[in-house]
Amino acid sequence: MKKIILTKNVHKPVGQYSQAVEAGGLIFLSGQIPLKLGGAIVDGDIKDQTKQVLENVGEILKSVGLGFENVVKTTIYLSDLIDYQDMNEVYGKYFQKDFPARSTIQVFGLPKDVGIEIDVIAARE
Question: 104 — phi, psi (to 5°)?
């Protein structure tokens, strides 16, 4: 059985998807892009965008009583791998030990022409 997760502390989905879905003790967060609560794209460089994405991830996790320490897998989509080091610098402020598994992929384009999107899988146990 799956449970749909929706928090008012993060922008509403802009398509036919849920912010997150819980099933079997795992929480699957949809890809987050750097949207502020009102739906505007965050101004700034890849560091600013990464911070906003991870703040969104944190709010969704918090809404189900979890934190970054519960994350077991992340997938990061960058529009340009030249941003990898700057993204990783910000990412390291949120994940400091017992790191999740991670994939980082350069993609041709992302929604709203942002520089980054991150999806996450977290576990209750």
Answer: -130, 125
- Report the alpha-carbon distance of residue 123 to residue 37 in Å, rounded: 25
**Unique residue bearing structure tokens 């795992």:** 26
Please count the structural domains in the chain: 1
Low-confidence stretches of the chain (pLDDT < 70) are none
Full-model pTM: 0.96
Show the tokens assigned to 36.
């502020």
Tokens in use for 20? 């997150």
- Backbone phi, psi, residue 97, to 5°: -160, 165
Per the structure, the complete domain to which residue 35 belongs is given by 2-123
Question: Which pLDDT does position 125 carry in this prediction?
Answer: 79
